[in-house]
Fold:
Amino acid sequence: MRTLSFPSRRVGEYTITAISDGSLAASLDLLSDIDPAEAGRIQRDAGVAQPSAIDINCYLVRGAGRTVLIDAGAGALRPGGGRLAANLRLAGIAPSDIDTILLTHAHPDHVGGLLDGSGEIAFPNAELVANRREVDFWQDDGNLSRASERGRGNFQIARQVFDGYGARLRRFAHGEPVPGISAMPLPGHTDGHTGYRVHSGDQSLLVWGDIVHFPHIQIARPEVSIAFDQDRSVAAATRSQILDLVVSEKLLVAGMHLGEFGFAHVIQNNGSYALLQDA
Structure:
């Protein structure tokens, strides 16, 4: 099998690799608390080639005898996505090699790749592990009844994935859903939105899920939320808190929409935060 190199970092005994699933087109008009023209200027000043594109990353964590995938991309559900399976193969990983899938949350661009084109599970040997609050939200018929038409489609997709994995679905409330990987509640984007901190010895890295969608904008302006957020004010508060944490701890972060490099640090710059991509 021909293999390619993807962005990777070492955290003690673990190797974390960013595997792209492609990208989504999303208008800057989806952002709140910022003028779209200002948002566009920030993107251009940061040298972003496609200002309205949102990259989709998934993360492969290998070590301690485990092969863990964090999120599975959009699959065939969203134009521009669906590259995860091919890129995993190029990284030398077969679907059957994955023993655990950790979900940050159950939006379509994170769970779509968990099923193949025929609706069967795409990772036959994997346990699907998710925050209990996240699973409960999508399985609640009251929440479904209050959803918009588009939102009801998201419920259908999430339920199809949960049903597909059946007895392979494991819910957790807190702690380490996988040894060496701690769950960090990051509410707002969804009720059970969860980050995962990989730690080994005195080293650690945070996979922060969807803390940002347009990183240059939302790191500099953490009050800016996006229409995909379930609770925009909570999402903004969570973003500010987590930015404070990663700056104070000088913590390397990974995020599903951080861009092609897949890893970054956040720094303070003239009284505000700025993204320093870890190339």
Summary: The CA atoms of residues 30 and 227 lie 5 Å apart. The first strand starts at residue 8 and ends at 11. The chain has a mean pLDDT of 95. Helices lie at 36-45, 84-90, 108-111, 132-139, 141-146, 149-165, 215-220, 232-248.
